[in-house]
Amino acid sequence: MLSEQTIQIIKQITPAVAANAETITCKFYQRMFSGNPEVKAYFNQAHQQSGQQPAALAGAVCAYFSNIDNLSALGSEVELIAQKHCSLGVKPEHYPIVGKHLLDAIKDVMGDAATEEILTAVSEAYGVLADVCIGREREIYEHLESQTGGWNGRRDFVVDRKVVESEIVTSFYLKPDDGGELPAFLPGQYITVHIDHPTTPTSPRNYSLSDRPGMNHFRLSIKRETAPAAGTPDGLISNHLHDDVNVGDVVALGPPCGEFVIDPASPPQRPVVFLAGGIGVTPLLSMAKSLVATNLTTPLFFLQAARNSSVHALKDEVRGLAEGKTPVVTRVIYDTPLAGDLTSGKCEDVGLINRDYLAKHTPIADAEYYFCGPKPFMLAIETALNELGVDVARQHCEFFGPKQPLVAV
Prior knowledge:
Blueprint: H1 4-19, H2 21-35, H3 45-50, H4 52-66, H5 75-88, H6 95-110, H7 116-146, E1 155-164, E2 169-176, E3 190-194, E4 205-208, E5 218-223, H8 236-244, E6 250-253, E7 272-277, H9 281-293, E8 300-306, H10 315-320, E9 328-334, E10 349-350, H11 355-361, E11 368-372, H12 375-387, E12 395-398
Parallel strand pairs: 7-8, 7-11, 8-9, 9-10, 11-12
Antiparallel strand pairs: 1-2, 1-6, 2-5, 3-4, 3-6
Family: In the C-terminal section; belongs to the flavoprotein pyridine nucleotide cytochrome reductase family.
Protein name: Flavohemoprotein
Organism: Roseiconus nitratireducens
């Protein structure tokens, strides 16, 4: 437990830390990667270059400091961090490294304002958070290793099949190279791909499992990431997987992790709405297929948004959800359709999933909403749901990459 003095000091410095949070976290990563380069293997360097990772850490630090006297409010944040750490193989001995460089970064940025009293309080606060995370991660590691087919760290898988789903998405069907069993996982979870790229040191990538549990394979449906702007690189690992990883090749995977899940054994007792934008379909399709496989009687709604038919992935599987005993409504909406997309039945609508569309096609009053996609899509969905009066407790979303606030900027 934190001392009352530490709580008061953290409260006092929170505004100053918040004002300098991204500067502190950028300095932190610079110092840590320079002083302890061995930890770079646990970080997606593309997120460092884009600034997403420092921004996400800044948000986490501010959230922790702001709730320093109400740590129970951070339960979901701790779970997200713990799941991500276990997917990467982070160990307790890494926490002191982070603590040292975080304190040094605060000293660098805040200068004389970072007194010994303040640094002692921050160190104590970090220690408490570290203990909470380590404890939760120990539980996750024990669960991962104890279940049938489970493992921690890395395990080799062989590419059994490679299926083109659209112009930009390819599915990889993966089976254990050792011929062993696959562990159970919760629909919505991801696995970590470790690639020793020929030109860049290993940089892990998390990809959602796009098929349901209980199959004889893991499936990853991966989008080929292109440069978001002129002068920036294409996605290094996604392009490598598309172009250079083929049937028969072996890749190292981390175990299934993640907190954005549905448990088919305890399904929601109210209608479920899945809202997929682009490649955000992957975790949602795993969830929906899993619920349909149980012959759930609760209605499901699956609304999938894409630019047009050329990039629309996994469309047949989404349509196929309605073929079982579970009552399922599927709709496809394109925002820039190709000629004939609408008349040929490839989509039902043209436009965007917005407030009016949700009000017309989903049971606003009592449904659980699960949504995933690019940040603008998620911002639009959250805004629409809030305007329609959908309680936050009925809204569930997944970020691809470091968690970001869904706010207009």
